[in-house]
Amino acid sequence: MSNEAEILPNLLQDESFEIVMRGYNRRQVDDYIARAHQKHRELEARLARAQDDGERLRREMAELREARKPTGDDLSDRLRQIINLAEDEAQDKVAEAEAKGAEIREDAAQESKRIIDDARAHADKNLSQAQEKADQVLASAKKESDSVLSSAKQEAEQTVTSARLEAERTLTASERRASVINEGATQRLTALTKNHTQALQRLTEISDTLHRLLSAENEAGPLEKMVEDAVRQSAPRKQAPPAQPAPQAAAPAVKPMQATAPKPAQAAPAPKPAPAAAPPAAPAMKKPEPTSADTPVPPAPPAPPQPKPVRPAEDAGPSQHPVPPQQPRGPIEL
Predict the structure, then answer these.
(1) Residue ranges of region Disordered (predicted)?
(2) pTM exceeds 0.85 for this model
């Protein structure tokens, strides 16, 4: 082992490779170099064992020579011949060991060189293959990117075109719908205006009718009073004592009539809400109907004069003929 550094100077150095981008496969090359180093170590171990064997044989021969070195007197020819043969054999073994060691060293050097050359060739091959593959991948990626870019441009143009057409269709449909809505709104506004006008006319007619009814009711008041006066004047002649309560009873009868008569007059302001009812057409048409139905209510007050003023003078019979006031005038003149 002492001459190992001199015998195998290249085997003790670790070979290394430069690492480049997209170079050889590091795992494969590292495994290959590890196997080569293992073989180097095995060859070195064999060489060391051979050298140790040679050194051991030399020491043994030296020891034998020193221990059994016979003197000239003690040695016989046969012993001298045996010693010479042993020395020759030892020299042959030493020479054989040295030759074997040299052969092992040479084989180890050649094997290590071959392994290193194979590793370098394999690395160069992997590097060239990786470079070719990288070029192919780059070309394929560039081609694919160009194809994708072209497809994206076409799709974008189609999308823009379809969006423009859809926008035009939507705009046309919106304009058509807006025109239809405007026409419908115009027709509805015309109908509402017409209904409003009709409602105003209807309210005007109702107001006129109410005014006529109120005027008729106010005119009917004096007629009833004249009838009551005639009854009051004819009653004292037939029975004087009971004639006094008759006017008193008749007077209250007139008061309810006067009290009930103003009630329709209070209903006269009913036409005032007409402007508020004008916007909705349908309600404006419905509201005048109940007011027209309520118009017969004012004639109700003439009903009380039939029973109440006539009861004090049932014999005279004014209840059957309440209108002609000339009958009582005859007795008054007499």
Answers:
(1) 220-334
(2) no
Amino acid (1-letter code) at residue 45: A
What's the distance, Cα to Cα, between the start and end of the chain in Å? Answer: 188
| Residue range 194-229, pLDDT digits in tens | 999 999 999 999 999 988 888 887 877 666 777 777
Alpha-carbon distance values, 131 to 17, 32, 143 (Å): 17, 21, 18
Q: How far is CA 59 from the centre of its chain?
A: 96
* Average pLDDT value for residue range 61-89: 70
The closest of 306, 221, 210 to 255, measured between CA atoms, is: 221
Does the pLDDT at position 75 exceed 70? no
**Main-chain phi, psi angles of 180, to 5 degrees:** -65, -45
Domain locations in the chain? 4-150
For residue 122, give the amino acid letter. Answer: H
User: What are the structure tokens assigned to 154, written together?
Assistant: 């076409």
